[in-house]
Amino acid sequence: MQSIVDHVFVGKDKDLLDILVIAFILISLLQSAMYLIRSWSSRVFISSLGVVWEKRLFVKLLKLPINFFESRSLGEILSRFNSIRTIQNVLAGSLIEVLMDGLMSFLALCIMLYYSGVMVTMTVLSLIVYYIIRLSLFSRIRTHVESEYTALAKQQSHAVETIRGIQTLKLFVGEKKRLDAWFNLLIETTNESLSLAWFRINFVVLKRFIVGIERVIVIWYGSHLVLNQQFSVGMLIAFLAYREIFSSRASALIDRLMEFRLLKVHVLRLTDITNSNVERQEGRNFSEEVKNIQIKNLYFKYAENESWVIKDLSLSIQKNQSIAIVGKSGCGKSTLIKLIIGLLEAENGKITINNKDISSIILKDYRSSFGVVMQDDQLFAGNISQNIALFNEDIDMRMVVDSAKKASIHNDIKKMTMGYNTLVGDMGSVFSGGQKQRILLARALYKKPKVLILDEATSHLDKDNEFFINQSMKNLSVICITVAHRKETIACADRVLEMKGGKIIRDCKPSEYLNE
């Protein structure tokens, strides 16, 4: 610009003008090409990095113990993954730009110093003022960001719970109450978002005001230099052009650095997963036939300030025995089951399998010996055969059918138009409660378990299906542990263990228990 004003206009050099125009066009093409390459390569790199991050986070999530999930809502956990995407988007949009802004700011500053140190000082001081203001208000911005994500997690959790419980809501005509509660959470989230947006808009206004005042002062001072013949018009125009580059790049650099600092909020949210202790991954291998399970002086409670759920419990189960665990709700039956299969860890005492402490065995190997149906087990989106085989890559249809027959669900499946290819809706909503339980039982049997554990696994079945399944379980020649209330299931067991207050108060034959 200085050459055009001082040489082309003053000297009326048209040839120089043509050369400068061509040079400007080439520079524009080069800048466009560099922007394209820089932006695309940055996006590809950060996206690839994001895939690695999300996979590692999900792998870590799957390794966490069951109590991690029981103490957090689904929406709260899912919102942690939103934090990864936020980090990814900020890095993809800003990482290369920060480097470029820093480089361009430095180069522009060096050129500006060649023209006038005084005017450079004015420009730099204005940016320092802007930086100090942003830094002083950073804690408030951070608080609003944290509040926004907390409110969003609550809203998502409420929506997920509403969808999962839609049948209950319709039966109790509770849609309006849930809608009102969700709307209040939506308003809370929106208000937090607006508060954050208000701060950011004010920063833009503040930046424009400070830069605008500084620009006026620089032009005023530079104009005096031109009038005093210390500057040419071209020099002033060139300085203002470089000043514009420096000011815009440096202020953008400040904004991006503040955004980087805000990423700590999201990093801290991720530490809820990354810093949590995983389930035991080490130990000895275990693949042998299960001959016995021993429990000695077992104690367990869910929290330090709570009472014992399992208290000084001892138990011995031998090969091929069928055990029925009975007792009132809340006496510790399901907790005992979770302790046996390694979902929970005892406070004191120990559990052994084939005289080996389960704490010394790799959990995956240990659990592979069990076929389990819990009260709140779920079916997954897919077809019936995939659910029975739990989405194994190589599904053995012969085993699928055999497992379904033993679980008394084969005939029901054959009556369906698509048979074993019938699609299962989310949460298994296509099937009745009894059908769902039998598919879950077939899934447990597909593993060819050495120990079968059923926690109220036949509570929704009619007597005929329950009788058939109980007879099938007797013929399996495996240890079978059943939590039961129904007489028909209890009668099929070899032993009945009655629990009360976290203890086994009675160990007897089914006939003795049922007669009383």
TrEMBL record:
TM segment ranges: 16-37, 114-133
Protein name: Bacteriocin/lantibiotic efflux ABC transporter, permease/ATP-binding protein
Gene3D superfamilies from the UniProt entry: ABC transporter type 1, transmembrane domain (1.20.1560.10), P-loop containing nucleotide triphosphate hydrolases (3.40.50.300)
SUPFAM superfamilies: ABC transporter transmembrane region, P-loop containing nucleoside triphosphate hydrolases
Subcellular location field: Cell membrane
UniProt domain ABC transmembrane type-1: residue ranges: 1-262
Domain ABC transporter: 293-516
InterPro entries according to UniProt: AAA+_ATPase, ABC1_TM_dom, ABC1_TM_sf, ABC_transporter-like_ATP-bd, ABC_transporter-like_CS, P-loop_NTPase, Type_1_exporter
Keyword field: ATP-binding, Cell membrane, Membrane, Nucleotide-binding, Transmembrane, Transmembrane helix, Transport
Keyword Nucleotide-binding included in the entry's annotation: yes
GO molecular function terms attached to this record: ABC-type oligopeptide transporter activity; ATP binding; ATP hydrolysis activity
Membrane topology label: Multi-pass membrane protein
